[in-house]
Amino acid sequence: MKEDAVALSSVTENVVSQGPTLYVVADTNRLAGLQGRMKRALDVMLSLLALAFLSPLLITVVIFVKRSSPGPVLFVQERIGKNGEPFRFLKFRTMVHNSDDAIHRQFAAMFINGDGHQETPGRVFKMKNDPRVTTIGRWLRKTSIDELPQLLNILKGEMTIVGPRPPIAYELDHYQPWHHERLRVTPGLTGLWQVSGRSNVPFEEMVRLDIHYINTWTLLQDLRIIAKTIPVVFHGTGGY
């Protein structure tokens, strides 16, 4: 699947990589009108089916998270959605309750600026070794099961099944102008980034993949990405 990322990104690399001086604009016309309504209908149908089919797993996860450490089962965080609109983003809690976000702020700045996968003097661990994460939380993150509550965000219309992942507000402080193109559509539960290596894909490559997805969107492409997401999650590729 890493090969998919290289192939797809190479289409736009010569232009997009020159941003912000010159970059490909995300064209949202493909996601308007009837096609947009078809995408929304697929979101609702698949989300309802997933919630029904996965309900035994969800109940089991609720029990394990509740027993793992004090605090709520769900982690609620403000994320940035379509056109910069904030919304309440849901995940199963994978960290100790009320953890300081300074560690992630530091990592986000490093990742977006291109050195999030490098050993840096003064940083004694990477995010994959985040000490705030609980034992059950590590497994939930590895398998991406912690993301399943976002099916509720999808039913509410705040997210879609396939699309760019929604950033945290403070991450935008490190965005270049062309990076904002990925925010012109509804954020997704999965996308080209996830099926191309997830955390192993550099940030600028992720943005290129997002822009390419927006500009070449089809319903068939969504179905292909959903199908590819299943083995990626099963094998835990790039997840931590």
State the assembly state of the protein chains: single chain
Q: Quick one: biggest sheet?
A: 2 strands, antiparallel
Global Rg: 18 Å
The portion of residues forming beta strands comes to: 5-15%
The figure for the number of domains is 1
Number of strands: 4
Q: What pattern of helices and strands is seen along the backbone?
A: HHHEEHHHEEHH
Mean pLDDT, nearest integer? Answer: 83
Fraction of residues in H or I helices = 40-55%
Secondary-structure-based class equals: mainly alpha
Q: Identify the overall geometry.
A: globular
Distance between the termini: 18 Å
Low-pLDDT segments: 1-21, 116-126
Number of helices: 8
Describe the structure in your own words.
The chain is globular, with a radius of gyration of 18 Å. The chain contains eight helices and four strands; from the N terminus they run H-H-H-E-E-H-H-H-E-E-H-H. Helix content is 44%, strand content 8%. With 240 residues, it is mainly alpha-helical. Helix 1 crosses helix 7. Strand 1 and strand 2 form a beta hairpin. The chain has a two-stranded antiparallel ribbon with strand order 1-2. The protein has a two-stranded parallel ribbon with strand order 3-4. It has one domain.
